[in-house]
Each structure stands twice: as structure tokens, then as C-alpha cells.
């Protein structure tokens, strides 16, 4: 092939040059053979005349695969027909469109994964290829005519070595500074060779904590590994760092110094003990010369790097080059005026000249460009991106000390620069804060290879010039046009000395201990590669199973199986994974294709038991569009074949006589079947008559469709993959009625809106039921409404007798507070465990409840006409309520999330009998609300809560019930929880129409609780047993779903304008300053004094607190912080904003109340005694204004500290603002320069602020190390108990440390 020079002076094939004039075809290839690469895209922009075979070659080259081991197919072709790899047909003739995106997929060939190409697979050996570290070339390169690339670089595999021949470093998070330094040290031959010559003794040190060993291991991997990039976690672990350090940005020069110090410590008494000094240490003279007598005072200092200022302090322009900055570094300054120098020879202060002189330059000269500065205008740290040039060869002779230039230390320091042999560290750069995309491949100027062949460098002088920073124009402070992170920050020059300049140690020249290390790492890498190969060939797919024992719950797991395993072997793996051993025989299980979202069985695999899973699933993919289901059957059953294209229908048989709906029977049909054929199919599965069959499709919630057109297809009726139908076949007259008026529709409507709730009743029900809820009896059929009612009649009568006696005894105790006539109305049938509707008479046979005569939610006073006075409180109710809610958090608004609970159906046909509708609702009951036709045209009542209180009232202004006169389903029966938690409490299983309001729901619960609905509260129980009170009586139960839990607690329900309030005691000097006392009710318009009067008997009876009304106060509570003090004359909702489930502090006063008006300010003060290392108890100071002067005067009067010596500081955090006594003296902002308390940094605008104060003349106690350590332990223990951090530091930046003992000793008090 003829080669011609391109614009970049490189030789390219002539066909590529001519191809630039013809149309281009953009190919975007997705590699679907590997889970790691499925989200990446390979992009190729090829001439339209390119052949298919050339396309395959280019894709193989770019993806890193061996050509011929993969196929390419169109992405938009369903059958994935592969392209002809050996064809010479052009792309245009093969269907590719020029100027458009052509999407292809790289797929397995014959079920085999593509083979990864080796480093030399391109036909060129390592010695003949250009090597560089950095991103792969984006423009046209020999061997691949791609000049288009996607924004995100695509790596074919982490196991593939980069085409540069170098191995990169993975950026842990923000460790680019570390990677830069490691790359620099690795590319320094003298440092790398010396590190290889050091031998690690495992018997003397743990390899995990050995910094030299981990660096040595990293360098070996960088030189010999076949990976694309290496992790640095082992190196940082040897530093003693944890994962959080990876998110700390540090300075590369600081890291260099700290790491060199650590290496010197580790290398003591070894051959490398003085390595750092030999390579990096120089000497300079710090002198002062008298200008009168010429006397010079000086000292010799050593240095490892030279910090060069970018922009002098106060200057508007920066230095333009490294030479200018070096000249400024040694430029002497004149000491005159007040800065005169005292000359020992003149014996007086004289003008002098002070400066630095270089005496000796190191072999490796490190220059730090100080690009980070502090802006005193904005008070922030900034980066200077100004342009500063640096030469390839740096002549240091102008900066030597002329007087000492004949010194042996300076003879060799003539200059330093690039070496002609191609050493990559004549001029070496390491920039901090570089941009990384997860992999750092570094910068290297190595232009030689093992055969000494000189090739054109990949990094050009233009690339180096881009690291100068700034722009080509003005060098102003803010004039940088390249405010980027690629500006040079650290320069390393190597001395030109052929006798010392070393080359990299080759692999064959490695010491024996390094060769052993290489072998170990190679074996580890091969093991990792084998493991990755296994993962690449492993199919990972979701697995489901309806477990036949564990409550018939749908269980989920992940099946991981090798692609070469057969379906039979995969079934056995899934069998063990789902814990079916000993439950179901293995031959009664099979894997089928399953769609979890639609609960659809797509197909079964009859006769394919020996087919590999890779072929069965369509290859190894990162995700599949389907799942697998492990289906089980009974030994006497036979698996039903599932064919592709079928739809699954769950058929529920409805019995109108017993008003029951049976569990589903699975039937498979085709979308092109007619309704008549579908009815015959159902008749075969259920045994019903197809002639009289009515089929109702439930397409979605609130949508029931009767299928009555015989010739209409299932597809036309709206069937999909998975469907749910209800069928009924009887000779009743219900067939003649319009569907929406039929009994079938009403039954399905009730079925769709009925939910099952678990209700826990109080342990005792001390109230009495004045009147029972009435329900009209059936006027028609006499059949039992639900199965099992007759069998439970005897136990119900026994329970009723016990309940009657209990209620009679309670009524006798209440005769003083209630009328005798009312107490006698408690009837025999007011029991806790009555199974049937509470309207039925206990001595009569259970009556059916037809759909038209459901349990009535009565209006007016029918439910509680004889209710006792709501103000009549039972002490036991209040105690029970407050005790149970001691530590519970409640919410005024029952803002429950609307959710539905759907259990999965049995996937095989079962011969289970029909279950009662209320007692055995099938698990697929729709839990979303469906509007009943009976309520059409009627305005729905939602939340009619009073705007002023945020709560609903069950009664109107005349005290009458506002419940809607609706007939909605309600049924309750006793149950015992499986966990035994309900032994001491009565539990109900309630089936209720969720369109019922909370008020009506409470009225239906009255007979079971034993008190009127105004005397108990409803709490909804969430996960982790959190309880929230439901208070909006006019809202429906639509937010509830199946199996939700409800707890009933005794206590008066709220009226209009009332709020439930939790009262906590504030104990400012106790270790636990917040203690719950009681629950109470405050009302709108009530004064604070009135609420205090109502609190007194509660505090006396329940908390044993006998207080005077003038010796305690109420104040605002914001989490744990005490706030505004409420004065007695304040009115709730007028002066004090109040909300439901409000919380207040009760504070006992030792003296009469000093707060008289809202203009006063109550501050909690605490004295700090540094001489005793202790804090005194809190004392309250009442201020008449927000003046700092008044606060100081009050504190001075309180403590006796002179006003001029008094200092104060505001506490931090939540009350009581705990802080360690070891930190309080220096960590708080003492004596802020403000005149009022309500400004920054104090912001003390409300009562309850914490203020510490001290005597400025009081010196802190001198502590020995033992005393300090002991005190630190005590403080840690104290602060941990209060939940506060042991230490507080406002410092945001973390100092860089390397720990030689493997890690820092953590303070037990720190998180």
C-alpha cells in the first residue's frame, strides 16, 4: 500500500487520503458481549467505499478483539442477522446510509465470547510502536481510519494494556495529585532503580503497612502488568489512610515532602537511607550583609524543592518565566528604617542587605510553582492561572553564588536540561488538580525504546506549551484565558551528567527478589483474569418462585449460571437457591420465561432441558427484558405448556348465592380468539356452563367490562399479556338486569374496594356503649351471608355473657357521673369479639346481608344517641393513653401514602374451594378506590376540616353527627396474631369498604371498643412500628391498603378548635434535660394560665408533681431547644401559634416568674472556669433589651467578674450545647465585636439561647500528659452519653498525614 505524507507530516495510506473527498458513513457499535461494555459505544467514521471486511478489521482494532471471533448485526433488526464478515461489498451497497448514524451491535459468534487481542496482535511488536501515556489518538491513525469519536472514551476492557505500552493509575476519587506524583517518581530512573534494589523483609514488617514495599509493588505492576490501569488503594492503605482520605484534595508538593519523610524513616539503616538527600537535596546560603562595614552573617540551609512565586504580593502582574521567578527568589532585600539590622561589628543598627544564594543544586531539581494564593479582597483561597513559561533546558549558572563558584559543591551545577539520549526526566512535569475520568495515564516524554530506536514523540512542544497557563496576551492577575487544571504546578529537572544519568532497569536485569515479586503478581493477575472470564460468561437474571410453604409468597432472588450450563442444571441451581429441598421434589419444578411486571408466563421450555443457558437466554447480557420463574406442581399434577404468543388469564369464579369469589384459575388463550371460544375454554377449566356464562374483564382499576359480543376477539376487548376476569354462570334473574345495576356488578364493586385491616383494641375497655348501631335486616334470602358464622355462634354467646357482666360492673362504678337510665342501656350484645355485623341481635339466628342492605353507616344520632357527656373523663383512659405514647411521635395530619398490596397468584391450577368474600378475599383485590354507581350524582365529601384548627370535628355546632348516610360494607371478626403479640390485647380482622369515612369507621368500631367514637383514637401503624394518629374524620380510608395495621387507644377525640399537646419537663441542669410528662388537649382561645390550671391535676395524678400554678411556666419546644417563654395572659391561636400534636416545655421555677413582657429576653448562661477545667451549672439571666452591655453587666453582677475582664461566647448546636472542657477555651468565638445580641455572629433573638462566659485573666489549668489523657477519656464518655461529638473543629481542610504505624489512633469519642 502506497504511503503519502499527511498534513501532520505523518505517512498515511493513499486510500485514506482520497477517502476524505467521498461521503462518510458514521457507524456506532454497541458491544453486547460483556456486561462491562454494554453501555459503551465504539464510533467509526469511514469512507462510504469501505468494505465490510475492512469494517470488521477496524472494529476489532478499536474494541481490542481478535478479528473473526465476533459478529456484527443491525441493532434495529429483530432477528439480529449478522453481516457477512468476508464480503468485499462496500458499506453503501450493504445498506449503510452516508451522513446518518448507523447503529450496529457487536455480538457473540456461534455462542462464543470474542477473544481479547494480545498486545502484539496488531502485527507490530512493542519495539516498533510509538509509546506514550495519555488518551489514545482521536484523529486518523494508521490501521484504523476513524476520525470521529464519541465524547466519552470507550475502553474495551480493563484487562487490555493501553496501546501506548504504559499502564495507567486509577483515580480513587480525588487522588489525581497522588497519581501525578507516583507517575513522576516511576518515570525517574534513579528513584525506580534504587527502589527495586531495596529488598523487603516480611519477617520484620507487615507488607500491608510497608510504604516502600507497596511503592515497589506498584512500580513493578506499572512496568510489567498487562492491565490498562492499576489501583492505588494498597499504597494509600500503607499510608494509614481509610476510604475517606480519597475524597480529600491535597497539595502534591506537600504529599511529596511527607512521603519522602516517611520513606527516610522506613529506610533507616539500609542502603537507601540517604537516597532522598542524594537525589533531591540542595544547599543554599541565607545571609545578611552590613552596608556600612561589609560584615556578613550567614548560615547554610538545605532544601528539597524551591518554591517560586507566580505573582508577587501586591503586584498586578505575574512573572513571565521560571527564570524571572528564580531571579526574584535570590533577589536581596534592603533592611533600613525601622527594619535596620544590628551589626555585631559596628555594634549598632545599620542598613543591611538580606538574601539567599544557591551553593549546591541537587541531582533532581524540584521547582514548585506557587499557583495557590489567598485573596484578601474575597477572603478566599484562589488559584493563579497566569502564564509562566519554562525551558526544556534550564541554565542555573546565573543563580549560583559567584563567591563560592569554585567550591567543590558547585562545580557540577552548571545547568540542567534535556538529555539527547531521550531520557524522559530531563524535563518532567507533574500537575496538581488535574482532570481525571477514572483513569490517569499520565504524561511521559520517553522517546526511546528497548532497541534505542528514536521515534517521533507523541507529546509535542505544543502540548507542553499548553501547560504554561494564561494567554498569549496580557499577564494580568485575572486575565487568564485558560482557567483550567492543566497548568504546570511542579517541575523536576535532572542534572546533565552522562556518568550519573541512569536508564530504566529492564525486566531481565531485575534482582531476584523483584523477579519473585513479578511472578507472584503475574499469577495473581492470571487468577483475576480467569475470574473475570468466568464473570463474562455468567448469565445473571432475576429468579422468582411462588414458595409452596412460606405463606405462598412470591420470593425473589438472582440466578447466576454459566452460559454453558444446561437448563436442567440451571433448574437444579434454582431449586437449591429457593430452599425447596425437602419441600417439593426436583422433578416437580421447572424454569419458565416470566414477565414480573405483567405477572405473565411468556413460555415454557419443553424438550429443551439439555440446551445451554447462553443460547436459551440469548447470550450473556447486563440485563434481560424478561425474568425466570421456578414453577412448582403437586406430584399428581402435570405442567401446562406455555407457548409464545399466548396471553395468561386469571379466572375468578363468582358465586352469587354465597356472595363469594374463588381463588384464580390460570387459563391461557390467544388474542385472536373470539369471546365464544374463550367462554368454552373457561368452561373446560372451571366446569361451568358456557351458555349462561357472564365474563367480566377487569382492565384496570375503576374499569369493569362485561364481554357480551360473541364474535369480538380478545384483542379488540383490550386483553394484554396478563389479564384478570370474573365469571358467573347461573339461572338467576340477575342476567336480565343492566350490568351496572346487577348483583354481579355490586359484588365486584365491593370486592374491588374492600380492604383487610388488622385492628388492635385496648387491653381494657372501661367505657360503656350507650346505644348500638342499628342495621336493617334482610328482606329476602335467608342464606348465611358468610361461611363459618353458624359454627361460631356458641362461642360468641359465651363471650357476650362475659362482656355483659364486665360492662355491668363498670357501669355501677360510673353511676355517680352518669344517669342510671344510660348505664342500664348497655345490652348483652356489646362484646369485643362479635363476629357478625354489630346490628344483629345476639339471640337470633345470623341474618344474611344482601348487597342492597349492607351495614349501615347511620347519620344523625342513631349511632350514639345516648352517648355520655364528652367531658366525663375516666382517669384510667388518660393514664393508658399517656403511658403508651410516652416515646411515640404522632402527626396531626394522616398523610398516608396511597399504596396497594398485591400478592401473587398461584401459577398452577389448584383445586381449592371458594373462599368467603370477607373472610378470604383473594390476594389480587384492587386496593385503589373505585367509585360506586350507587353514589353517582352525589357530591363526595373529602376533607371538611376547620381551617383554624387543621382537624376534623365529628359533630356540627349542635353536637350532631355529620357522617354521611351511606351503606358501605363493614365486617369484623377476632383473630390471633401468629407472633403471639396479641395475647394480652384483643385483635380484630376487619374487612371494610375503603370509601367509608374515618368517622363512620369509628362508629362501626364502637361495639368492639366498648366506648363511643369520641372516647377513642385511631392510630395507623407503619413499618418499624411507628404510629401516627388519623384525625381527619371526613377523609375516606382510600389511603389504606390490604393488611395495614391499626391501633385503637382510649382517650377523648378532639373537637373543633382543639389540639393534642405533648408536655415535656425542661431540666436545664440534668444530664437528660428533656423528660416526657403527659398528653393533654389545648383549645383555641384558651389562655396559657387556663391551660396550666388544667395541667395541674394531670401532673399531680400521673406524674406525682404537686406544683403551684405560679411556680412553673410553659415555653416553646423546638426539638430539644427551649424557646419563647409563654406568659399567663397569652391566648392560643392569637398570641401563640399552635398546631396538632404540638410539643411544649414545662419548666419548674425556683423563684417567682421574672418574665413579665414580650420585650424581655431570657438567656441561659453558664460560667467556664479554665483554672478548674469545669463548667458551672446553668443560670437564667433576664434582659430588658438586646444590649451586649446589659448582658455583660448582668453576668458581672451574677459572677463577680470585673466588667472589663468578662468575656462571653454563644453556645453551638442544640441545647445544652455540650462541648469538651479541653476545647471550649479556644474553639468558641469569645468576646464577639458586636453591640447587640440580634446581629451576626450571635443572632440571639429568642428566649433559650445558651451563653458561656469567663474571666479573661483566669489562666487555664496546667495538665500533664496523663491528666490530659484521663480528662479526655472522661469527656469522651460524658459527651457520648449526651449524643454530642467529642471534638469540634471549624477547620474544613484536613491536614495530610502519612502514618508509619499503619493508621491513626482513633479517639473513642469520635464518630
Automatic annotation (TrEMBL):
UniProt entry tagged with the keyword Hydrolase: yes
Record-given protein name: Ubiquitin carboxyl-terminal hydrolase 47
Presence of keyword Cytoplasm: no
Catalytic activity: Thiol-dependent hydrolysis of ester, thioester, amide, peptide and isopeptide bonds formed by the C-terminal Gly of ubiquitin (a 76-residue protein attached to proteins as an intracellular targeting signal)
Residue spans of biased composition, Basic and acidic residues class: 825-836, 876-886
Residue intervals of the USP domain: 167-520
Biased amino acid composition, Acidic residues: 943-956, 1258-1268
Lineage: Eukaryota, Metazoa, Chordata, Craniata, Vertebrata
Stored InterPro entries: Papain-like_cys_pep_sf, Peptidase_C19, Peptidase_C19_UCH, USP, USP47_C, USP_CS
Biased composition range(s): Low complexity: 858-868, 889-905
Residue spans of biased composition, Polar residues class: 409-432
Keywords: Hydrolase, Protease, Thiol protease, Ubl conjugation pathway
GO cellular component: cytosol; nucleus
GO MF annotations in UniProt: cysteine-type deubiquitinase activity
EC number: 3.4.19.12
GO biological process: protein deubiquitination; proteolysis
Organism domain of life: Eukaryota
Stretches the record annotates as Disordered: 401-432, 766-796, 810-960, 1257-1276
PROSITE patterns according to UniProt: USP_1 (PS00972), USP_3 (PS50235)
Amino acid at each position: 500500500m502506497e504511503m503519502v505524507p499527511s498534513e501532520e507530516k505523518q505517512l498515511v495510506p493513499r486510500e485514506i487520503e482520497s477517502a476524505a473527498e467521498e461521503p462518510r458513513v458514521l457507524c456506532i457499535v454497541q458491544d453486547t458481549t460483556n456486561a462491562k461494555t454494554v453501555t459503551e459505544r465504539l464510533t467509526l467514521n469511514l469512507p462510504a467505499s469501505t468494505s465490510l471486511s475492512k469494517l470488521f478489521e477496524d472494529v476489532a482494532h478499536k474494541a481490542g478483539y481478535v478479528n473473526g471471533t465476533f459478529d456484527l448485526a443491525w441493532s434495529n433488526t429483530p432477528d439480529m442477522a449478522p453481516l457477512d464478515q468476508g464480503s468485499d461489498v462496500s458499506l453503501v451497497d450493504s445498506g449503510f446510509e452516508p451522513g446518518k448514524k448507523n447503529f450496529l451491535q457487536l455480538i457473540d459468534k456461534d455462542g462464543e465470547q470474542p477473544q481479547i487481542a494480545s498486545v502484539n496482535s496488531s502485527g507490530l511488536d512493542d519495539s516498533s510502536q510509538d509509546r506514550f501515556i495519555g488518551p489514545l489518538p482521536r484523529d486518523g491513525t494508521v490501521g484504523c481510519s476513524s476520525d470521529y469519536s464519541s465524547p466519552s472514551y470507550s475502553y474495551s476492557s480493563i484487562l487490555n494494556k493501553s496501546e501506548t505500552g504504559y499502564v495507567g493509575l486509577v483515580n480513587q476519587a480525588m487522588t489525581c495529585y497522588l497519581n501525578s506524583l507516583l507517575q513522576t517518581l516511576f518515570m525517574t530512573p534513579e528513584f525506580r532503580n534504587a527502589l527495586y534494589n531495596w529488598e523487603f523483609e516480611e519477617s520484620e514488617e507487615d507488607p500491608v503497612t510497608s510504604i516502600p514495599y507497596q511503592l515497589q509493588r506498584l512500580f513493578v505492576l506499572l512496568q510489567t502488568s498487562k492491565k490498562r490501569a492499576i489501583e492505588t488503594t494498597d499504597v494509600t492503605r500503607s499510608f494509614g489512610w481509610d476510604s475517606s482520605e480519597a475524597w480529600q484534595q491535597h497539595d502534591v508538593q506537600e504529599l511529596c515532602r511527607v512521603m519522602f519523610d516517611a520513606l527516610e524513616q522506613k529506610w533507616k539503616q539500609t542502603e537507601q537511607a540517604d537516597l532522598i538527600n542524594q537525589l533531591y537535596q540542595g544547599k543554599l546560603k541565607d545571609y545578611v550583609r552590613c552596608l556600612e562595614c561589609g560584615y556578613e552573617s550567614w548560615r547554610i540551609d538545605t532544601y528539597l524543592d524551591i518554591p517560586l512565586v507566580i505573582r508577587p504580593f501586591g503586584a498586578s502582574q505575574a512573572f513571565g518565566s521560571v527564570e524571572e521567578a528564580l531571579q526574584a527568589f535570590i533577589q536581596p532585600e534592603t533592611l533600613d528604617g525601622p527594619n535596620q539590622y544590628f551589626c555585631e561589628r559596628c555594634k549598632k543598627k545599620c542598613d543591611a542587605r538580606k538574601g539567599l544564594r544557591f551553593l549546591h543544586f541537587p541531582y533532581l531539581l524540584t521547582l514548585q510553582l506557587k499557583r495557590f494564593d489567598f485573596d484578601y479582597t474575597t477572603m478566599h483561597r484562589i488559584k493563579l492561572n497566569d502564564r509562566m513559561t519554562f525551558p526544556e533546558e534550564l541554565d542555573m549558572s546565573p543563580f549560583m553564588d559567584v563567591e563560592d563558584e569554585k567550591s567543590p559543591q558547585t562545580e557540577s551545577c552548571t545547568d540542567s536540561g534535556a538529555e539527547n539520549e531521550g531520557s524522559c526526566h530531563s524535563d518532567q512535569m507533574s500537575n496538581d488538580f488535574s482532570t481525571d475520568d477514572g483513569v490517569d495515564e499520565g504524561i511521559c516524554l520517553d522517546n526511546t525504546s528497548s532497541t534505542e530506536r528514536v521515534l517521533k514523540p507523541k507529546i509535542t512542544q505544543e502540548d507542553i506549551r499548553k501547560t504554561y497557563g494564561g494567554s498569549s496576551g496580557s499577564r494580568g492577575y485575572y486575565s487568564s484565558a485558560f482557567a483550567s487544571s492543566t497548568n504546570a504546578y511542579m517541575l523536576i529537572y535532572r542534572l546533565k551528567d552522562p556518568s550519573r544519568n541512569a536508564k530504566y532497569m529492564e525486566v531481565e536485569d531485575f534482582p531476584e527478589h523483584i523477579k519473585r515479586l513479578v511472578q507472584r503478581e503475574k499469577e495473581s493477575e492470571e487468577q483475576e483474569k480467569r475470574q473475570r472470564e468466568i464473570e463474562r460468561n455468567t448469565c445473571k437474571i432475576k429468579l422468582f418462585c411462588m414458595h409452596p410453604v412460606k405463606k405462598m409468597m412470591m420470593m425473589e432472588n438472582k440466578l447466576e449460571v454459566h452460559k454453558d450450563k444446561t437448563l436442567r442444571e440451571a433448574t437444579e441451581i434454582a431449586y437449591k437457591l429457593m430452599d425447596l429441598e425437602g419441600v417439593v421434589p426436583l422433578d416437580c419444578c421447572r424454569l419458565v420465561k416470566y414477565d414480573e411486571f405483567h405477572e405473565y408466563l411468556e413460555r415454557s421450555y419443553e424438550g429443551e432441558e439439555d440446551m445451554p443457558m447462553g443460547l436459551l437466554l440469548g447470550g450473556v447480557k447486563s440485563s434481560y427484558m424478561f425474568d425466570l420463574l421456578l414453577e412448582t406442581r403437586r406430584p399428581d399434577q402435570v405442567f401446562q405448556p406455555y407457548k409464545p404468543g399466548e396471553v395468561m388469564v386469571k379466572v375468578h369464579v363468582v358465586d352469587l348465592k354465597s356472595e363469594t369469589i374463588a381463588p384464580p384459575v390460570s387459563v391461557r388463550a390467544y388474542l385472536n380468539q373470539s369471546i365464544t371460544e374463550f367462554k368454552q375454554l373457561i368452561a373446560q377449566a372451571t366446569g361451568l356452563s358456557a351458555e349462561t356464562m357472564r365474563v367480566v374483564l377487569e382492565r384496570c382499576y375503576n374499569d369493569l367490562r362485561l364481554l357480551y359480543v360473541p364474535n369480538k376477539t380478545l384483542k379488540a376487548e383490550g386483553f394484554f399479556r396478563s389479564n384478570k376476569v370474573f365469571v358467573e354462570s347461573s339461572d338467576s334473574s340477575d342476567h336480565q338486569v343492566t350490568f351496572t345495576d346487577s348483583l354481579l356488578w355490586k359484588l365486584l364493586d365491593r370486592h374491588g374496594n374492600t380492604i383487610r385491616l388488622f385492628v388492635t383494641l385496648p387491653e381494657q375497655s372501661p367505657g360503656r356503649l350507650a346505644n348500638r348501631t342499628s342495621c336493617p335486616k334482610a328482606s329476602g334470602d335467608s342464606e348465611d351471608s358468610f361461611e363459618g358464622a353458624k359454627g361460631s355462634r356458641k362461642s360468641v354467646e359465651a363471650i357476650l355473657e362475659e362482656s355483659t357482666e364486665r360492662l355491668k360492673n363498670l357501669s355501677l362504678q360510673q353511676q355517680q357521673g352518669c344517669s342510671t337510665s344510660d348505664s342500664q342501656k348497655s345490652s348483652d350484645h356489646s362484646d369485643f369479639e362479635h363476629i357478625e355485623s354489630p346490628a344483629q341481635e345476639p339471640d337470633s339466628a345470623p341474618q344474611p346481608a344482601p348487597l342492597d342492605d349492607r351495614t349501615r353507616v347511620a347519620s344523625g344520632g342513631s349511632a350514639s344517641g345516648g352517648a355520655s357527656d364528652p367531658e366525663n373523663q375516666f382517669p384510667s383512659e388518660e393514664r393508658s393513653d399517656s403511658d403508651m405514647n410516652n416515646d411515640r411521635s404522632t402527626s396531626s395530619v394522616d398523610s398516608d401514602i396511597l399504596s396497594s398490596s398485591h400478592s401473587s397468584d398461584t401459577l398452577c391450577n389448584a383445586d381449592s374451594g371458594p373462599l368467603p368474600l370477607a373472610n378470604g378475599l383473594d390476594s389480587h383485590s384492587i386496593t385503589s378506590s373505585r367509585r360506586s354507581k350507587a353514589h353517582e350524582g352525589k357530591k363526595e365529601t373529602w376533607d371538611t376540616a376547620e381551617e383554624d384548627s387543621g382537624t376534623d370535628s365529628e359533630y356540627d355546632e349542635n353536637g350532631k353527627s355529620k357522617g354521611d348516610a351511606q351503606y358501605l360494607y363493614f365486617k369484623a371478626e377476632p383473630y390471633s396474631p401468629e407472633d403471639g403479640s396479641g395475647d394480652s390485647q384483643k385483635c380484630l380482622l376487619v374487612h371494610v369498604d375503603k370509601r367509608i369515612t374515618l368517622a363512620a369507621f369509628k362508629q362501626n368500631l364502637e361495639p368492639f371498643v366498648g366506648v363511643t367514637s369520641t372516647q377513642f383514637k385511631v392510630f395507623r401503624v407503619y413499618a418499624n412500628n411507628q404510629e401516627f394518629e388519623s384525625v381527619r374524620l371526613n377523609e375516606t380510608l382510600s389511603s389504606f391498603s390490604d393488611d395495614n395495621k391499626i391501633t385503637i387507644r382510649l382517650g377523648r377525640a378532639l373537637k373543633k378548635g382543639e389540639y393534642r399537646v405533648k408536655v415535656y419537663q425542661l431540666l436545664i441542669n440534668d444530664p437528660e434535660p428533656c423528660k416526657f410528662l403527659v398528653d393533654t388537649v389545648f383549645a383555641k382561645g384558651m389562655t396559657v394560665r387556663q391551660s396550666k390550671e388544667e395541667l395541674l391535676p394531670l401532673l399531680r395524678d400521673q406524674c406525682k408533681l404537686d406544683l403551684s400554678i405560679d411556680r412553673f411556666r410553659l415555653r416553646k419546644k423546638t426539638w430539644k431547644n427551649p424557646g419563647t417563654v409563654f406568659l399567663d395572659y397569652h391566648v392560643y391561636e392569637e398570641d401563640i401559634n399552635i398546631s396538632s400534636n404540638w410539643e411544649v416545655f414545662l419548666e419548674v421555677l425556683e423563684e417567682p416568674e421574672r418574665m413579665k413582657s414580650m420585650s424581655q429576653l431570657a438567656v441561659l448562661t453558664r460560667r467556664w472556669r479554665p483554672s478548674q477545667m469545669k463548667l458551672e451549672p446553668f443560670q437564667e439571666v433576664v434582659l430588658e433589651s438586646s444590649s451586649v452591655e446589659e448582658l455583660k453587666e448582668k453576668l458581672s453582677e451574677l459572677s463577680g467578674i470585673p466588667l472589663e475582664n468578662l468575656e462571653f461566647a454563644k453556645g453551638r448546636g442544640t441545647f445544652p450545647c455540650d462541648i469538651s472542657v479541653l476545647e471550649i477555651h479556644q474553639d468558641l468565638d469569645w468576646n464577639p465585636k458586636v453591640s447587640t445580641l440580634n446581629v451576626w455572629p450571635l443572632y440571639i433573638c429568642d428566649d433559650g439561647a445558651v451563653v458561656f462566659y469567663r474571666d479573661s485573666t483566669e489562666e487555664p489549668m496546667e495538665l500533664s500528659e496523663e491528666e490530659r489523657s484521663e480528662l479526655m477519656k472522661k469527656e469522651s464518655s460524658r459527651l457520648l452519653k449526651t449524643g454530642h461529638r467529642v471534638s469540634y473543629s471549624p477547620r474544613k481542610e484536613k491536614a495530610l498525614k502519612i502514618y508509619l504505624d499503619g493508621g491513626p489512633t482513633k479517639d473513642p469519642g469520635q464518630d
